[in-house]
Structures are given as C-alpha cells and as structure tokens.
What we know:
Layout: H1 6-19, H2 21-29, H3 31-39, H4 75-79, H5 88-98
Amino acid sequence: MDSLDRASAEAQIIKKAMKDSTFRASLIADPKAAIEQTLGITLPANVSVNVYEDTATSFNMVLPAASGSEQMGSDIGSAADCSGWSSAAECAVECTQCGNNDTTCQPGPTEE
C-alpha cells in the first residue's frame, strides 16, 4: 500500500464504517485489528486504538497530546525518527507502511 497519512486513513476508515455495518461493529469491538486489516498495515504493539461512537445525546472530542508530553510511550520514538510528523500515530502508520520498522526508518512530512 502506498503511504497514507493519518487524516486520509481516518477518512477511509470512517467512510467504510458509515457504509458497512459489519465493519462498523468490528471497528468498535476491536479497532486496532479492524484498522490493520482494512489498511493492510501492522501498527506497533505499543499503539492502542480507541473508537467511540457519537449518539443523539453524546459526542466525543479528541485532544492532541499536550505540548512536550511523550506520545504513545517511549518505544515508538526508538522505532523511528518521528520529527516532522503531526503525531506519533501518523509517524507509526507511515513507518509501518514503508516496511523499514527499525532505527533506520526516518520518515518525514514530505514523504508521500
């Protein structure tokens, strides 16, 4: 699969979940597995994925990690140079897709 940024990946997953009720149920039950299977990627073991469904009486917000805080644990930083990415999750997806998941993988925001 070609490089896919986080926003594009999320849009693809949401679009599929809106059209396919079986996929939507699997995304809610086991989000990491559903995303990996759909996008053809393997997320790092230390990455967790949470999916929350809005309802008529509740909605969910996602706040980015606080400035200067460690995102998604220290292991992701040792797996890749994530400088330049908007989030460690985006870097993890890119690095996983490039197939070079070791210390030599240095994706950047211009890699497409």
